[in-house]
Amino acid sequence: MADVIDTFAGELFRAQTDRRPVEPLTERAPDLVLEDAYAIQTRVIERRIAAGARAIGRKVGLTAKPMQQMLGVDEPDFG
Fold first, then answer.
1. Which backbone phi and psi does 74 adopt, to 5 degrees?
2. Is the Cα dihedral 20, 23, 29, 32 positive or negative?
């Protein structure tokens, strides 16, 4: 799975840099789990920092239970 995580992180980093969309990752790898998503996110952040960006804060979403229920999740997301 580490190869998939690195590949997807690279694709997402390039997509952000080039401002182009990518196909949904879960359609290409339906066995991805939450931990994989966070690992991909971490690798993208590492690449952005290596390219000169700096982390200046965190984002938390889906803190309201009704929104979590609507989207079928049971905890907030963050990034």
1. -125, 15
2. positive
Do 76 and 62 meet the contact criterion of CB atoms below 8 Å apart?
A: yes
Helix, strand or coil, per DSSP, at residue 13: helix
Torsion (CA) 47, 34, 32, 66 in degrees, nearest 10: -120
pLDDT string in tens for the chain (79-residue length): 889 999 999 999 999 999 999 999 999 999 999 999 999 999 999 999 999 999 888 888 999 999 999 999 999 988 7
Which stretches within the chain are classed as H helix?
2-18, 25-28, 34-50, 65-71
Is the pTM here over 0.90, yes or no? no
Q: Which two tokens stand for residue 14?
A: 């390039």
